[in-house]
Amino acid sequence: MAKKAEKKEQYPVIPLRNTIVVPNIITPLLVGRTASLKATEQAILDDSKILCLTQKSNIKSEADPKAKDLYRLGTLCTILQVLRLPDGTIRLLVEGIERIKIKRFQRNRNYLQASFQANPKVITASELQIVALVRSLKKAYDKYINLNKSVPEETMMPIGDNTDPLEFFYFALANLQIDVKKKQKIFEMDELYASLKELYNIVNQEVEILKLEKKIDVSVKNKLNKIQKEYYLTEQLKAIHKELGVSKEEKTDLLEFREKIKKANLSPEARKKAEEEVNKLARLNSMSPEYSVVHTYLDWILDLPWDEPEYKDFDLKTAREILDKDHYGLEKVKERILEYLAVVIMAKKVKGQILCFVGPPGVGKTSLGKSIAKAMGRRFVRLSLGGVRDEAEIRGHRRTYVGALPGIIIQSMKKAGTKNPLIMMDEIDKLSSDFRGDPASALLEVLDPEQNNSFRDHYLDFNYDLSQVIFITTANTLNSIPRPLLDRMEIIELPGYTAYEKINIATKHLVPKVLKEHDVHEVLKITYQKAALERIIKQYTREAGVRELERQIAKILRKVVKKRVENKIGDTIKIKASDLEDYLGVPKHLYSEVNRKDAVGLVTGLAWTPFGGETLQIEIVKVKGSGKLKLTGKLGEVMQESAQAAFSFARLHAKEYGIDEDFYKKYDIHMHVPEGAIPKDGPSAGVTIVTALISVLAEKKVRHDIAMTGEITLSGTVLPIGGLAEKLIAAKRAKIKNVIIPAKNEPNLKEIHEEIKKGLNIMLVSRVEEVLKEALK
User: Fold this and answer.
1) Alpha carbons 595 and 113: distance in angstroms, whole number
2) CA-CA distance, 70 to 54, in Å (whole number)?
3) How far is the C-alpha of 756 from the C-alpha of 232, rounded, in Å?
4) 397 pLDDT band (50/70/90 cuts)?
5) Higher-confidence residue: 253 or 534?
6) Is 626 in the active site?
């Protein structure tokens, strides 16, 4: 035992945080608070004696504790060692001398000091009782230090049987890892036997807790791989929950998912998958990265529409009214749509051909889809396929990839919120493909009515029924659509609008729409003269659709609004043809590229483009040479072959048209198609090329008021062409009244609207000789 201190009235006080110093035990202390440092310095100057009192838990007074914040029972200590650290703190090694009780605190300027009296433990029990209790305590303490892996090495040193009971009590109390409040409570007990008994009870409790922890550790370690640290922690948590009686069903997310799965009308395959994932989620820690992956997957499954939608009655009369209200003209297209809707009304289900609207930009393909959805009372979802080059964008990514998501089909179903929406796939002809796959091939399953009842998205990894979805696609051209995909769709062609139709569309739809979009429909009243609209269409736009026309009308409106704001005009305005140059500037398109005089070697052809029909000027000249054929104007391979076929035809029939039969030895032929920066291709310029060639060789002029289209063979047969309606519109727009077309296109001619054919003299030909007879003067 340490020696008793010599009597002194007062000693400096060091308040202790979260620790307790007891007699007979050497304890390290780190002193950092200003008052404690001053008290330590004073004790070192005096006799190295200091009072160590444990501080009560009081956050507000922790920095500078007052007398009321300290327990009154503590320990008088001797400072054995002092180590001053660079940061100004002091590390002490103190030894407890005796238990003391504070009589009175006194604070001087720098630190707290106190007067005290010795307060040793009282022994009232018999020696045998104490010995028996100490032996039991020693056994319990041995178990404690063996089970507790975090105890310091010195506490594991063997304790002899002859150790004094009081010394052992203080030794065990100092090294027991329990709450400091519990330690202080036992420390303040005056009777030794009662103190030993309380300590014995606490040691036994700690031993039971440590045994349970070890049991949990063992049960977890038997199930895990050493590398799976995360899995180990999860299983440990699970075992703790099991011991505490906390079930995994109490987790909010799990309860919600289980309830949603129970209520949802999932398919058997989807239900099985969802239940597997919920069980997996129950085993995962919420901090695990995989937890969020599984959580997101379950959200996608449960957010998809699963319930059978109610069939909504609709009648053809209402459908026709909606189509007529939203779109002017397009009678054949509307008729085909109404036939489709009639089948749906009769069968009360959708199964059959996928519709594909093909036509130039701006003719109303997408808005037709919206009108169909409106007529049927279905949700409308639009997808843009332009530039899609990854198959995973259609079918989704497998969940092995970071950030995986379903494809755009499943995303559209979630967005629609119903199993029977109308999904419009815009620009299906703009699909691309690369090393990541071919999205067009992925669409084969989606657009096949026989297969799409079991569409399998890579992310979901189970079949989903798309059979009740109405799919409508749009395209500008069919050339780039793969044949297998084209085979699954019914093609409905939307030709360009005539000037008459555009005037009606502008009057009934575009002008009111632009006024409403600019939010001036209640303030301004604008009307257009028919002549003004005609001039806009012919001189300021050059398109098959009406988008540019809408932009020009909007431009006029902005100019009108500016004048109105400047108080230069009133609220009612009439736009005249003579006003257009003030509003729109100089006319952009005067069709000057069309030859207006009869000329040798200059012929007007008709071409089809994705933007509608166009006129095409073909020029041929002959110069002295050795029979070379030169082709310029960025012509495609097919068009070059048409020129070679025309050259061979001219050599074969030279005598019939008064041409020198040796012309190919004396002259070089140069064919040029203007607008050389624009690529041109296709076989339908055959009759135009042969006419220009015969004209220049025979030195006969070609009529300027005639346009033509048709493919030729070496024998002189004229073959049918495509895009007839667009080509006739182009001729009419260029004010050419005489048009030569292949006789084999007569069936197509019957399907073209009378408004397009009105005012045109259409000549049907089967042979090149007939073309030359009509065209050459």
Assistant:
1) 117
2) 6
3) 78
4) confident
5) 534
6) no
CB 164 within 8 A of CB 196: no
Identify the band that residue 80 occupies on the pLDDT scale cut at 50, 70 and 90.
very high
239-265 per-position pLDDT tens digit = 665 665 444 544 577 778 888 888 888
> What is the C-alpha to C-alpha distance for residues 271 and 257, in angstroms, rounded to an integer?
12
- For residue 75, what is the enclosing H or E element? strand 73-84
Q: Compute the distance between CA of residue 167 and CA of residue 98 in angstroms, rounded to an integer.
A: 11
Q: Which two tokens stand for residue 37?
A: 């440092």
What pLDDT was estimated at residue 249? 45
SS3 535: helix
- Strands in 108-201 per DSSP E: 112-118
Q: Would you give the distance in Å from CA 751 to the centre of its chain?
A: 44
Model pLDDT, residue 759: 87
- In the structure encoding, which two tokens stand for residue 226, read together? 């050493």
Question: How crowded is residue 435: how many other Cβ atoms within 10 Å of its Cβ?
Answer: 6
* Mean predicted confidence (pLDDT) in 723-747: 88
Query: What is the band of 501 on the pLDDT scale with cuts at 50, 70, 90?
Result: confident
State the Cα–Cα distance between residues 575 and 549, nearest whole angstrom.
15
Show the beta-strand stretches assigned E in 373-488.
Answer: 380-384, 422-426, 455-456, 463-464, 470-475
Per the listing, tokens 């010195």 go with 154
Inter-CA distances, 279 with 95, 259, 394, Å: 58, 13, 29
The three-state DSSP-derived secondary structure of 497-534 is: CCHHHHHHHHHHHHHHHHHHHCCCCCCCEEEECHHHHH
Closest CA to 688 of 672, 711, 705, 667: 711
Q: What is the pLDDT of residues 321-367, one digit of tens each?
A: 888 888 887 777 888 888 888 887 777 666 656 889 888 888 888 88
Output the six-digit token pair for 10: 């007062």
For the question of whether the overall pTM of this predicted structure is more than 0.85, the answer is: no
Out of 121, 374, 419, 727, the active site residue is 727
Q: Which of the 8 DSSP states describes residue 377?
A: T
Catalytic (active site) residue 727: yes
What are the start-end ranges of the E strands in 300-413?
A: 354-358, 380-384
Asked whether the beta carbons of 370 and 431 are under 8 A apart, the reply is no
The answer to whether residues 510 and 519 touch, using CB atoms and an 8 Å cutoff, is no
Instruction: Tell me the average pLDDT across 169-174.
Output: 88
> How many Å separate Cα 514 from the centre of its chain?
32
Average pLDDT value for the chain: 84
Catalytic position from the list 684, 695, 700, 732? 684
Task: Output the pLDDT for position 53.
Answer: 92
Q: Report the amino acid identity of residue 695.
A: S
SS (H, E, C) 52-65: EEEECCCHHHCCCC
- The residue written with tokens 């069936």 in the block is 747
> How many other CB atoms are found less than 10 A from the CB of residue 58?
12
Residue type, 66: K
**Predicted confidence (pLDDT) per residue in 586-602, tens digit:** 888 765 467 778 889 99
The pair of three-digit structure tokens given for residue 178, joined into one six-digit string: 């329990």
